[in-house]
Write a structure and sequence with these properties.
This protein is α+β, with helices and mostly antiparallel strands. It has 4 domains: 80 residues, membrane protein fhac (Ubiquitin-like (UB roll)), CATH 3.10.20.310; 81 residues, Roll (Ubiquitin-like (UB roll)); 73 residues, membrane protein fhac (Ubiquitin-like (UB roll), Roll); 342 residues, Beta Barrel (Porin), CATH 2.40.160. 18% of the residues lie in helices and 46% in strands. The strands form 6 sheets. It has a 16-stranded antiparallel β-sheet with strand order 10-11-12-13-14-17-18-19-20-21-22-25-26-27-28-29. The longest helix has 21 residues. It is elongated and about 115 Å long.
Amino acid sequence: MLMQAADKPSSPDQQDQPDRSGQRGKLAAGWLLVLMLLWQLPSTAASLTLEIDGIDGAARDNIAAAPILLALQSAESLTRLRLRRARPAIIEECAEALKPYGYYNPRVSVRIAGSKPEWRLQITVEPGVPIKVNQLDITLLGAGADDRVFREWRKNWPLPTGSILLQQQYEQAKQDLLQRARQRGYIAARLLQARIEVDPGIHSANISLQLDTGARAVFGSVSDESGIIRDDTMRRLQPFQAGDFYHAELLEDWRSNLAASGYFDRIDIIERLSPEAEPPRIDLTLQLQARPKNTYTVGAGLGTDTGPRLTSGWDIHRLNRRGDTLSLGFGVQATDMEFFAQAEYLRPIGDDPGEFWFASASAQRKDDDFEFIDTATGEEVFPEIDGNRFNQLVNSGFIRQSQPWDGWSLQRRLFVGFLNESFNTDEPRPDSRQLLLLQDNPELLPLLNQDQQVLHAGFSWQLQKITGQGFNIEGTNALWRVIGAVDGVLSDISFLQSYMGLNYQRKLHENGKLIMSAEFGYTEAKVDNLLLEQDGDTLDFSLTQLPERFRFQAGGDRSVRGYGYQSLSNNRNGSNHLLTGSLEYEHRISQDWSVAVFSDTGNAFNDFTRPKLQWSAGLGARFYTAVGPIRLDLARQLDTGDNALRIHLTIGTPLVTFGSLPYLSGVQ
């Protein structure tokens, strides 16, 4: 009889027993899930810290840069066993890293500290006695053996006998020798011998260096297929001739001359060596791209001296293939309702790239009131008489530009000019007080309507060095100018005038800057001294016979702050002499902002024995922009009893302008 297992009754024990095989399966699946999660968790990266004792400076840094140490520091995992196995290599590479610094017999010990994952290597160095130079043999052979550049190099050799052997200095001096040779035109220069023999036992080294300069190359042909500028003008810009010894600095001078000419936007100089020539020859090819012929500018500004102003300019960089240039300018400003136009023409001359013949012309119209101000008090004694002034000025002469020292530029001008100036009152109906003034003082009448012609000649020297941008701008700007005229030689007046101006800026520290300026002017010219009277009021009236264009006036944004624009002179009508000075400290408080404290002094006067300088002081704020600093100053007069603060607003650095200089086209 067959029996089926399903029909067999189970014992009570079997019925109460759990399914163990199912639980084991669930447990295995759980552990698998945990392992998978652990596998996906980020592992803790190993870290290795270096502790290097016994040496510092560049030698210590070179040990820290040993390849074995860098590899261990970048390893994802480290064990004590791996560090132990690496110890011999660490000791060897640390010792090798000390050789460039003259230590050939060091003792290096390495101790492993810390634990996984944060390990520390404690490297202790006993550098020992350094290797010193015992013998030095430097020999120069060939055509350049006595060349001054090699004599200078030999004089500055960094490892004399008795010095510690520093291989980096040796390698640098060796490369400098080869570089000098090639820059000087010794194209085939080569080292016949360059050897250091070290004897660690006696801590000494012998250096042997031998250079064969070979023949010196010369400049060959120069080709320019652009045709932008005539050959004779291009030769002016070239500081060498075919057959001259080659020098890389002459190529840089040539590139600078080409760039400064203003004719080109792109300048490439291709060198081709002909080593088989005797002597070796380097031919040059110019690849030039012309600058756009015309440049147009339009500008607007605002200043407390000038009020709103508009300017425009047109520069023609190449009038012809000879390289003549023409600059035109036009402008208007609200103060005195001034209008002006000016032009300057430059023509290259001579063999020097900085020599030009120039001609300039300007015309100006402005309101110019005839004022009756008490110079001592600054108060108006009689009512002013409205007038306007016109002048036309032409100049012609020679300019020579040069660089006497590195970074310095010197411009010298020799010129002759002719000025026509007229002053006319536009009061067709003077009021009763003005009419009485003229009736009581008829000597004033010839002064109210004047026409002057002045043929003058002079020279100017301007020396500049300006570096940096924004707050970091520094430099010196100095100008000396002399002008004179002789009565009767196409001139209505005789005078001789000398002017000297100096602007100076230097950083005292990272955030502090010193700014100084000074002006001095002296003129030999006649002065009309009148004692004017009306209704019991009297005025000592002093008026120079100089044309207004040559008179000195001080005061304003760029002169003696705290005083009005051109308010300091005899009766506010201009004077023969000038003396001003300014001292300012500027401190940067952020990237674009700074604050300043300053004191100014000065005046313009006709009596040189009584200058009566005026003083002022104030505070300022500066905001640096791409077009220059925006300067806001609050200044107060110190010696007049006027406690009011005067606001001065200007744009641009004071380093490039002279605040009280009489304007003269072609000079300023």
